[in-house]
Amino acid sequence: MNTLIEKAKSEHTLSKDEILQLLQDETINQELFKSADSIRKEFVGDEVHLRALIEFSNFCHCNCLYCGIRAENSFVDRYRLSAEQIIQLARQAYDFGYKTVVLQSGEDFAYKVEDLAQIISEIKKLDLALTLSIGERSFEEYKILKEAGADRFLLRIETTDKDLYMKMHPKADFENRKRCLFDLKKLGYETGTGCLIGLPGQSLESLAGDILFFKELDSDMIGIGPLIPHPQTPLKNAENGNLELALKVMAITRLLLPDINIPATTAMETLNPNGRIMALQSGANVIMPNITTEDIRCKYEIYPNKATVNYKELEDKLGQIGRKISHNKGYRNLRRAL
Ligand code: 5AD
After folding, report:
1. 33, 38, 52, 150: least buried by Cβ within 10 Å?
2. Cβ–Cβ contacts within 10 Å for residue 125, how many?
3. Contact, 264 vs 280, CB < 8 A?
4. Would you say the C-alpha torsion 85, 87, 93, 97 has a positive or negative sign?
5. Block mean pLDDT (10 aa), the chain, length 338
């Protein structure tokens, strides 16, 4: 076996240079995926956790160069769901059997933190874990949302290469994004981050840095997605991110953070009709089906042709690879306590 993979499997640490060597070596990919799959099985088991995604607003004041709902995309038909609509969708998710709902939106300050806190406490009357994915806010705001009952928070760092970050996110502040992540961790959120694969100018070395950052944060969830260029953004002529490379970054992340939650991301499935299953067999243990109604979902177009989940089909496919849908909330911290 490749000695670096062996070391990652047993020690769960690698230097930046060692990660880079794995990323550069095309001959070890299958071995890497297999190893990540066995570490996944050993540390988090065969259950796949489903997180019901509710995209409640596509207003966004950010201008990320790659993102379809960026503020300057005037073609977007903007919408905001009301508190009642959001709560109703969460109820539907609960009735369907989901154990987690994820409330995601663009960075939309029309929702005051008090409004969000009320929505959260209403949803938390149901037996559900609640994840937020609403972007950068202050420590105080994150604290109010945590106290209202939010359990988890997703905020991808997108890239840890500061120069690239500044190019991709005009006027954004890289240090503030990191501050947010460490604040979330400090406040006791299960904190998720992640990165994009295939940003123009991104190097393998910077991806190695991303993986080390996940480890430094001790992130509880990591979402990794290949870039899919959106035709109404400045990156419209960029190439698709490389799925194999995205899977490699994900697999190495699994080896270094063996007990975390890792989604098979929608962007992976969008690039390959079997992308989700490939990811689940290379370290992933989570899927995030979108439960927003179709009329709204099509307006939340961060990239084109977003893949969907058919529950029955998914259940069948999981059965075929020896996996099953979990009926618990899938907290990293509870697994750790056992
Ligand atoms: N292709 C792939 N992923 C994208 N995201 C945003 N735009 C794109 C795109 N064009 C990802 C970002 C963000 C997450 C919600 O979606 O990483 O954090």
Report:
1. 38
2. 12
3. yes
4. negative
5. 96 98 98 98 98 98 98 98 98 97 98 97 98 98 98 98 98 97 98 98 98 98 98 98 98 98 97 97 98 94 94 95 97 78
Strand, coil or helix: 140 = helix
Contact 316, 323 (CB under 8 A): no
CA of 301 to the centre of ligand 1 (A): 10
- Kindly calculate the radius of gyration of the chain based on its CA atoms and give it in whole angstroms: 19
Q: What is the pLDDT of residue 42?
A: 97
Query: How would DSSP label each residue in 70-120?
Result: -TT-TT----B--HHHHHHHHHHHHHHT-SEEEEEESS-TTS-HHHHHHHH
Nearest to 218 by CA among 185, 261, 249: 185
- At 1 the pLDDT is 79
Q: Which residue puts its alpha carbon closest to atom 14 of ligand 1?
A: 156
Say whether 191 sits in a helix, a strand or coil: strand
Closest approach atom of ligand 1 to CA 194: 17
How many whole angstroms separate alpha carbon 152 and alpha carbon 236? 32
Using an 8 Å Cβ cutoff, are 19 and 208 in contact? yes
Residue 48, classed as helix, strand or coil, is: strand
